[in-house]
Amino acid sequence: MITAVVYSESGGTYKTTMTANIAVALERMGQNTLVLDLDPQEGNLTSLFDVGSNRSNPDADNLVKHILDMPDGEFSNLIETTAEGVDIIPSHDMLGDFTSNLEQKISYETGMQNMSREEYPRFELLYDLLWNKQQLQKQYDAILIDPNARAEDLLYNAIYALRTLIAPVKPAGKGNLSLEGLEELVGNMESQLDIEVGLSCVVPSGVGQTNAHQQYQQQFQDTEAFATPVTIGNRESLMDAMWEARGSAFKVVEERWKTFEQEGEMRSEPGHRRIRDREVETLRDLYTLAHFIATETFDADVAPVLELNIQDSEPIRIDLTEGTQTEVTTV
Ligand SMILES: Nc1ncnc2c1ncn2[C@@H]1O[C@H](COP(=O)(O)OP(=O)(O)O)[C@@H](O)[C@H]1O
Ligand SMILES: [Mg+2]
Fold first, then answer.
1. What CATH number has the domain bearing residue 217?
2. Domain boundary residue among 220, 235, 250?
3. CA–CA separation, 185 and 101 (whole Å)
4. Could you tell me if 243 and 147 lie in one domain?
5. Which residue's CA is minimally distant from atom 1 of ligand 1?
6. What is the pLDDT along the chain (331 residues), one digit of tens a residue?
7. Are 22 and 150 members of one domain?
8. Boundary of a domain, candidates 203, 218, 235
């Protein structure tokens, strides 16, 4: 089973975009995939996929109520299915108050059971819900989490439950790497949670053509410290269009979503985007990344072939086993 938290120390490293694209790539490889959106803020995975209509309703059942063992309905009713087949448990405002709700529960339970607060397994609740109570391993091949950015209870619950990290990184101001920061963090989590945390790979993203960016990318590719299967280029136009297409970069290209100005207004519509080699190359990179995670990190058996059915155009078939440069063959 593939289980990973898409984690980054700093915000705005394209975490949510990355989670959506990896999830859809895994689904396209035949892996039944679920994503958990643990970020209560605007612009999260839930808004990207246009789900979670109850996210601001305090009375609605939500994941926090289930994690704290106070459900208001069936767990299966929390799950929504996106247009691209990926299942999602959407975000809810209550995620923002997770710690205070957890503290209340701990006070209550430790009072009832004559247990000390320190003994309470506060980081093990999501693990218990996903694997013991709901047995999601029987239903899914892959589970990904887009966590909240802050290093607090919810993030620790996510890492405790899934055990493996995928780390998107972005070229920093002066091109310096935060490799040490990342390793230190994995070490801290292991000792704090008393578990082993694996780092599947690091994914430099938003890398441009400037010298500083190219050097930055090179440093990552040269290191033996961890795997860097791909680098995702600076693809603002493609990735921004995901928020209009309400789906992955694969959907943007296949449905040809484009944002343009018309009569002084910005509009986004399918059927307009030109097919660009570098964008098809990025889809190949995203697929390669998901394939790496599935096969190298988790030993899953998945097909290395990406088929793109592009609106009003010839389909494109990319076989990842055929060389390193994209061989776009139209069939
Ligand atoms: N490879 C990329 N190059 C350029 N812009 C990107 C890339 N990936 C994502 N973006 C854009 O960056 C913005 C922030 O991305 P997001 O995934 O929401 O970041 P985070 O979840 O880390 O805060 C979005 O508008 C997105 O379209
Ligand atoms: Mg995000």
1. 3.40.50.300
2. 235
3. 26
4. no
5. 206
6. 999 999 987 778 899 999 999 999 999 999 999 999 999 998 899 999 999 999 999 999 999 999 999 999 999 999 999 999 999 999 999 999 999 999 999 999 999 888 899 999 999 999 999 999 999 999 999 999 999 877 789 999 999 999 999 999 888 754 455 566 777 878 888 998 889 999 999 999 998 888 888 888 888 888 888 899 999 999 999 999 999 999 999 999 999 999 999 999 999 999 999 999 999 999 999 999 999 999 999 999 998 999 999 999 999 999 999 865 454 555 4
7. yes
8. 235
207: CA distance to ligand 1 center in Å?
Answer: 12
The CB of 200 under 6 Å from ligand 1? The reply is no
Residues 205 and 280 in one domain: no
Ligand 1 centroid–CA 133 distance in Å is 34
Q: Give me the count of residues in the chain.
A: 331
For ligand 1, atom 16: residue with the closest CA? 14
Closest alpha carbon to 16 in 92, 127, 91:
91
The 3 state secondary structure assigned to 89-128 is ECCCHHHHHHHHHHHHHHHHHHHHHCCCHHHCCCCCHHHH
pTM of the model: 0.95
Q: Which ligand number lies closest to the CA of residue 13?
A: 1
Q: Which of ligand 1's atoms lies nearest the C-alpha of 13?
A: 22
* Partners of residue 308 on adjacent β-strands: 316
Same domain, 111 and 220: yes
Contact 179, 169 (CB under 8 A): no
| Tally of structural domains, the chain | 2
Instruction: Give residue 57's domain range.
Output: 2-235
